[in-house]
Write a structure and sequence with these properties.
Blueprint: E1 2-7, H1 20-27, E2 32-40, H2 50-58, E3 62-72, E4 75-76, E5 82-83, E6 86-95, E7 99-106, E8 122-130, E9 133-141, H3 147-167, E10 192-197, H4 207-211, E11 214-215, E12 219-220, E13 228-229, H5 230-233, E14 244-247, E15 252-254, E16 257-261, H6 263-266, E17 269-274, E18 286-290
Parallel strand pairs: 1-2, 9-10
Antiparallel strand pairs: 1-18, 2-6, 3-6, 4-5, 7-8, 8-9, 10-16, 11-12, 13-16, 14-15, 17-18
Helix pairs in contact: 1-2
């Protein structure tokens, strides 16, 4: 099972050209994909719904879209009929296997300096039926502005994970009207994958919130109710694997895109790689491979 996270910069490649087909080609071969900076109906990217366009090209994926920015773009035609269209920006998840339930959470509050661009951000959850069992998959995009806001986003994501099973699925419990009980969603699974452009580096104050604090004898202290950095679980170093290049020629920069997993999934990781030559965005895709149960 191959899982990818990719900030697609709304389809804008290193050459400045918008090409959603090029994004789709880069994603080919992944089984579950978390996307960030995905938009719908912006003029700059061709006035299309990008997730729909990607899924149309890839053909064999289910998908969900979690808009965090949502702005009116409707119109009234000559007959007086209103057409509802929203200009949106947010996160997405695609999967070869059924997405059984989904929900999107907006991060509370928004750092809004008068001298910098700021947007509403959030996290999208999908419960997916995978060969490893049911798994909660999260795609998110932390703030680019300051650690102050990123810390709040990381803590929100961790708290969301920790209370997920207690909160239950999107619809739960008995109801006197049995129509509510049609095809009830499955119980919330314990295992989870949290991925995205987190705009943090391992040496900063945000990373330990998710990966655990550092101990000089034992390294990262993994918590049963927390996450494991899949890059480390694959045997790679914390300072390796840049996903955002400041020097494209030498392919050097910062590791700011991550795939975190619950401890129960960490032992199933076979490998991790950055697709270093992809040029369809200003970020590089990160791919993690999991072993699957043998067929019986």
């Amino acid at each position: 099972m191959r899982v990818m996270t990719y900030n697609i910069q709304y389809g804008k490649g290193r050459d400045g050209r918008y090409d959603i087909g090029r994004i789709a080609e880069t994603m080919a071969g992944a089984d579950i994909i978390g996307l960030q900076e995905v938009e719908a109906y912006w003029e700059r990217s061709g006035d299309l719904h990008q997730v729909e366009a990607i899924a149309e090209r890839l053909r064999s994926y289910y998908w969900v879209y979690g808009a965090t920015v949502d702005i009116h773009k409707g119109w009234v035609d000559a007959d007086g009929r209103a057409h509802n269209r929203r200009r949106q920006f947010g996160n997405a998840i695609l999967s070869r296997w059924p997405i059984l339930a989904t929900r999107t959470f907006l991060f509370p509050g928004k750092l809004s300096p008068v001298n910098a661009h700021s947007i509403q951000r959030g996290i999208t959850e999908a419960t997916i039926e995978t060969p490893l069992g049911h798994v909660r998959v999260y795609s998110t995009h932390f703030s680019h502005l300051a650690d102050e806001e990123r810390i709040a986003h990381a803590q929100f994501a961790l708290d969301l994970h920790r209370r997920a099973q207690a909160d239950g699925p999107v619809s739960s419990g008995d109801h006197p009207d049995i129509s509510w009980l049609e095809n009830p969603p499955p119980a919330v699974p314990a295992e989870a994958i949290l991925m995205g452009d987190l705009n943090m580096t391992p040496d900063g104050p945000v990373y330990p919130i998710l990966a655990g604090p550092q101990n000089r004898m034992y390294g990262r202290l993994r918590r049963n109710d927390g996450f494991v950095d899949s890059w480390l679980a694959a045997g790679r170093g914390e300072e390796e694997g840049a996903t955002f290049y400041r020097d494209w020629v030498n392919k050097t920069g910062s590791r700011i895109d991550y795939i975190f997993v619950t401890p129960g999934l960490a032992g199933k990781i076979e490998g991790a790689e950055v697709l270093r030559d992809a040029d369809a965005s200003d970020h590089q895709p990160l791919v993690v491979s999991f072993s699957e149960p043998e067929a019986r």
